[in-house]
Amino acid sequence: MTPEGDLLHVVTRDDLSPARRALGRVLIWGSFALLVLVALAQALNAARVLDLGFANWRPTLYAYAFWGTCLCIGQVMLKGEQGKRLVFVLPAALFTVAMVVFPLIFGLTIAFTDWNLASLSGRRFNGLANVRQMWADPFYWNALRNMVWYTAAILVEYAIAFGLALLLNAEIRARRFFRVAFLLPLMLSPVAVSWMIGKSMMEIRFGPLARLARWLGWENPSFFGSPEMARFWIMVMDAWTFIPLMMIMLLAGLQAIPRELTEAARVDGAGPWKTFREVTFPLMLPVSVTAILIRIIFKLKLADIIINVTAGGPGGATDSVTSFIFREYRDRSNVGYGTLLAMVYLVLIVIFMTVLMKLAERWTRPRT
Amino acid sequence: MTDRPATQIFRDGEADLRHRARWWASRAAIYAVLILWAFVCLFPIYWTATTSFKAAPDVMQGNMIPYVDYQPKWLGWRSLGLSPDTIGAESTVRAEFLKRFTNSAVVAVSASALALVLGSLAAYGLSRFSYRFGPMRNADISFFFLSQLILPPVVLALPFLVLYRELALHDTRIGLILLYTLTVLPIVIWIMRDQFAGIPTELEEAALVDGLGVWGAFLTIILPIALPGMVAAFILSLVLTWNEYFFAALLTSTNAVTLPVMVASQTGSQGISWWSMAALSFAAILPLIVIGIVLERYIIKGMAAGAVK
Asked: pLDDT > 90: what percent of chain A?
């Protein structure tokens, strides 16, 4: 990233006629006025002030898309070369704003209501009642605590992934076979994994894992009986699917280390363990931090496996925040409360990730 | 053979032997771990594939190896309408399965393609020009896009549920496509920014001297060079969108239901037989297993991008 100035210097003669610029301006503001008008008309329609016969809010969506297109064309007409550059980023920016910023603001307005889609009373502002309910909700706090456990499990996953990456980086035969085999779990849908492993291989009577457990001397293998056990097996299944992600990143990092460095260490008399600790591992630190951060991001979204294998049970012991809110909606259609819980979760994540990224930056900065 | 330096013909001195023993031991250990983990990775897939050919007694006896332990039967696939004897006949189950399969394919491919177009353009712009949107400069704009990765889907889920009802996008493929595009867009931008940063700007400069515009240079010179990276980003998006369950479960009910939702709803109902579940699960993961084996190079490339600077 260059902080200042363009990487690609383009000098073009922009002699834009006043008529062209005026047209561009008309295009942008005209379509914007249309968007405002449509949105206003729809709002009035929704508030039952005017009956304009709109069945849904789609006209506003179309008006937004139209405005977006006109904005891109208008930029080129208005600013010439500079406009053409803007058009690279504008579509993605407009799309993201429409799909993230707007729903987030909308979400904030419903987070403080008692909106239940199943009830007929519709949405009513109820102040901080949702916050108070959240404060007293043991299941939500339990889900948050579980997320801490699930996130902590990443350290073990990291160790395994690092080991596998080292093995794949060693001089082995059939490297491609092992790489493909190790990669495959990542390709499988978590829902299918929940059935394949959670529901059939761990089935108490006939599942091969249960048979193995019995053969090893565990009399009555119930994998999801006690809260600790259930949590552990959820972690294992999630680790199984996502270890390849970290492994591939670490492998790429290992392959980027120049051979001369490890060879030099060996020539200087360092054994394999010392070479790893003093040369490989410090060099891998930046990649490790990136891999762990990305893994944490994915972990914080964990839900599919929990929803499908235990549905949060036994007694909410395995719930992640996402799966808990999912059931809050599925079972009770409680949109207002669920949104508030999600918003609180978002705030916590943003704080957590910011701190983590600042720390990571400090750790990976080369010591001088 | 003859031009090899013949300094030491027999490597059986005491030091050599000790060294070789250790070397063999470490080899054996490495391969043992590799094979063990390969087994851990592959066994569930093997188990699902074989279970789809089992009948009730085979499941209960825990038979593992087809033709040795038990005789494979088409039971699971017949229940999906995909076995040799039912493939010609009408089958409502197969029709439903194919409908879900098409939904998944259409949604995953369109969302990945849309994300690829939007993301590549943005990544190229950010890697070549400097922008100012109010107080935001390039680094801030990049961060704005990438920070979407941190956003947990659950935050958007309920607002979208309500918004989509108002917009009549609930239970439509379009709605899912838009949402999935959003979820994979930061990943595409991340990978592509890395790709474009690796392409020297002299290429475009030469093209510009030859009279092409900025867009002309991008489309005719840069895109072909960045194609492998784009394939990597596309495949990775495809994997993520094909497997997505959370949004699909919330935002679809009948028409736009995708394959993971179908699998999940079948799992939920008790009494469904293992062989048909196994057949369904295997059919759902098969496309990605094929992609994983054939395009492994691109997937690894996509995931490695950005990890190594």
From this structure: 27
The fold of the B92-304 domain, in CATH, is MetI-like fold (1.10.3720)
pTM, full prediction: 0.88
Domain with CATH 1.10.3720.10 in chain B: 92-304
Taking only the tens place, the pLDDT of each residue in A306-337 is 988 888 778 788 888 999 998 888 888 888 88
**Token code pair at residue B63:** 């038979």
Domain boundaries, chain A: 18-111, 138-364
For residues B130 and A37, what is the distance between their CA atoms, to the nearest angstrom? 34
Answer CATH for A138-364 from 1.10.3720.10, 1.10.1060.10, 3.40.1000.10, 2.60.120.10: 1.10.3720.10
Burial B176-213 (b: 16+ CB within 10 A, else e): bbbbbbbbbbbbbbbbbbbbbeebebeebeebbeeebe
Q: What is the CA radius of gyration of chain A?
A: 28
Facing B208 at nearest CB: one of A10, A86, A251: A10
Residue among A200, A297, A307 minimizing CB distance to B274: A200
pLDDT in tens, A333-358: 888 888 899 999 999 999 999 999 88
Q: How far apart are CA B191 and CA B117, in angstroms?
A: 13
Give contacts of A 3-22 with B, CB under 8 A: 3-10
- Local confidence band at A250 (pLDDT 50, 70, 90 cut-offs): very high
ipTM over 0.90: no
Nearest CA in chain A to B142: A1
* Cβ–Cβ below 8 Å for A89 and B179: no
